[in-house]
Amino acid sequence: MEASFFKILFLLIFVYSVAPTVVVRLGHIGAVSRAPKGSGRVALTFDDGPDPLYTPQILDILRHYQVRACFFLVGSKARANPEITRQIVKAGHEIGSHGYAHKAAWLLGPRATSREIGEANLAIEELTGQKIRFCRPAWGLFNLFSIWYCRLMDLKVVLWTYMSWDWIKNATPESITRKVLGRIRDGAILVLHDSDSAPGAAKGSPSRVVEALPRILDGLKQRGLQVAPLEEIMALKKKSFFKKTLQQLWSFMDSIIRLLSGIRDMGDGKYSIWRIALRRYRGKDWLMPSGSVLKRGELFLELHLNNDRLLSLMDGNTPLERATIIAMREIRNGLPVLAEFLSSSEKYSKVNIILGITLLHRGLGRIGFTALDMKPGIIQTMIGLYERWLLAVFHPDGFKGLKSYRYKLSPKYVVMTKQELMQHLRQG
Questions:
Q1: CB within 10 Å: which end of the chain, N or C, has fewer?
Q2: Of these residues, 47, 48, 194, 196, which one is catalytic?
Q3: Catalytic residue among 93, 98, 102, 193
Q4: From 3.20.20.370, 3.40.50.300, 3.30.110.10, 3.50.30.10, which CATH number describes the 9-234 domain?
Q5: Catalytic annotation on 397?
Q6: Cα(54)–Cα(48) distance, rounded to whole angstroms?
Q7: Rg for the chain (alpha carbons), in Å?
């Protein structure tokens, strides 16, 4: 009976304290421990302050290097050092909460947890007039309630990418600098300490941070890395997640649309630029610029670009102009493949007209296509909205980045006869 009691007690402690920390720290769920790669930015954070001896020295160094950091303040220390707390904000630095008394969440029940977080926020907000957005629990420890409470209070939990071990007894300015610069990578969130009053911190350890900090900042500059505020990093993280979600949504929608509409990859879908559908024309007889007529009931080839192929050739920072150049190159290189397909496929042998619709029609005339205006109406509007949405999802600046193109982004038919295709390839 006694053994069962201890097993249940251990299980409860594990579920309440240990498991949440493991999930957040190792699974990177519910907290930020690094910035997105590719931005050339790192974040600099300081824990356990403010301290009347060390924090002003650090502020002077940051002012000299014109660098903004985030100070995770202990609420009781902020109340004890109100002027230094205000100096941090006045200097343009960000502030976050590090708890009111720097207590480990593993040892706190739900009520004590809410007090530790809530009172810290209240103390710092009263002194600075700024709402707390970021928090970092003492020692990076969580309990089941603290995770829920941070989400309830709309607090963004920020951890770190790796430790510099600046607070231990044997740390030196050289060892701190070496540990930071030896492991620094694009997107890292650095943590240093501007106070030695937390349990376990060696007396005088922040003095080594003060000595190491200029070396670290010089080293970051030499490596081409910029120290950025957490606000910017969080915005990048949010944008990246939002954009990734939109892209996944588009991919799902696109696959459903292709399945329902009979659009299929031509050849190997991974490497071919073309997606196609065999259609039977249902409108009035349509005179093509070449003199050919697309008659009612006649088969034609509906041509689509393989967006998955295009995306594999770009990254999230490719501007629209560059994307258009890449698409044009792929279309030009794909014309011989299209001609061979039409010549060798019995099913498509009767096709004479090749027809597509696109926003990116500029320049297609140089490779044999003719752009024709679409008749204004619901079809043109819906196609235009869909293709603009598609461009915005994959444009690096989203919908905002397409504003300068809004008058040019009008969907048009692009047409070519099989005879024109063969003639263009012979001339080319």
A1: N
A2: 47
A3: 193
A4: 3.20.20.370
A5: no
A6: 11
A7: 30
